[in-house]
Design brief:
This protein is of the alpha/beta class. The protein has 9 helices and 13 strands. The protein has 3 domains: 114 residues, 3-Layer(aba) Sandwich (D-Maltodextrin-Binding Protein, domain 2); 75 residues, Periplasmic binding protein-like II (D-Maltodextrin-Binding Protein, domain 2); 81 residues, Double Stranded RNA Binding Domain (2-Layer Sandwich), CATH 3.30.160. Helix content is 36%, strand content 22%. The structure holds ligand PBG. Belongs to the HMBS family.
């Protein structure tokens, strides 16, 4: 018997899946890999929030598990939306890689005028840091984004450092500090999703890193309470129970923030409710500015 692993076909997804395959192989568990194309991979011209947010990357693989075509799927955990279909379990969360963002640029930092990113969070955070930069939309996989910077369509781009490391890329630029460029919830964590099947979940537990799982679940608890969706600039980061959450105005001119040590997911949830109450006006503002109704 072998485990059927589903993955997206992007270089990043394949690198992540390769890591899980290696870990399974070390335990003499046979694996078969299936590459599945998702709507998010075939639609690159429009901002993510217009095609249904991060969830588009995950849905096709969820469906393949539920149809019994594959047993497990490997994802960048930050791409997994808050609402999950019934019948699926989070089989394992690997030990976290770098949670930080990376500002990549070719010349001198002083010469950076245009920064490419389609993430409302990254745009707001870079504008807070330097309101004089011009942020320009930039979607596509990591390679596409790097190519566009090399073609000088942008002076700089912002990417997850974890993605660069998994692809083995070293780019000129700077790691952005996580206390001011607070990452997306679950950035840098790899998740293994499976059918809600106790024997399958049990088989995957050796892949699981408990401290990472607590931190990423605390981040998701905050994310669920804040709501906001991917159109609201928000950063949520937990490390060993030290939680930072912030919601920003789209132009980075204002923000609300909570910072607290949490021991339980319920405490994290409470922190999320506090942030929600503080940031209600910023969430409404972002939704209205982007012309979204829900
Ligand atoms: N938005 C796509 C995406 N999903 C996960 C990562 C990076 C890897 C990770 O966060 O685990 C990236 C690329 C990026 O944000 O630059």
């Amino acid at each position: 018997m072998s485990i059927r692993i589903g993955t997206r076909g992007s270089a990043l997804a394949l690198a992540q899946t390769e890591r899980v395959c290696r870990m399974l192989a070390e335990r003499d568990i046979a694996v078969e890999t299936f590459v599945i194309t998702t709507e998010g991979d075939t639609t690159t011209g429009v901002p993510l929030h217009e095609i249904g947010g991060q969830g588009v990357f995950v849905r096709a693989l969820d469906d393949a598990i539920l149809r019994g075509e594959i047993d497990i799927a490997v994802h960048s955990m930050k791409d997994i939306p808050a609402a999950r279909p019934p019948g699926l379990a989070l089989g394992a969360v690997l030990e976290r890689d770098s949670p930080a963002d990376f500002l990549a640029y070719l010349g001198q930092i002083e010469d950076v005028r245009t920064v490419g990113s389609s993430s409302t969070r990254r745009c707001a955070q870079i504008l807070r840091f330097d309101p004089s930069v011009e942020v320009k939309p930039l979607r596509g996989n990591v390679d596409t984004r790097i190519r566009k910077m090399r073609e000088r369509q942008y002076d700089a781009i912002i990417l997850a450092e974890a993605g660069l490391e998994r692809l083995g890329y070293t780019l000129p630029g700077d790691r952005l500090p996580v206390d001011t460029f607070v990452p997306s919830p679950n950035q840098g964590a790899i998740a293994v999703v499976c059918r809600e099947d106790p024997s399958l979940v049990e088989m995957l537990t050796f892949l699981d890193h408990a401290p990472t799982r607590f931190d990423v679940e605390a981040e998701r608890a905050v994310m669920e309470e804040v709501g906001g969706g991917c159109f609201t600039p928000q950063g949520i980061y937990c490390r060993d129970g030290s939680l930072i959450g912030e919601v920003l105005a789209l132009d980075g001119s204002r923000w609300e923030r909570v910072e607290q040590h949490v021991e339980t997911l319920e405490e994290a949830r409470e922190c999320g409710r506090d942030l929600r109450a503080l940031a209600e006006h910023l969430i409404r503002e972002a939704r209205e500015a982007l012309g979204l109704s829900s």
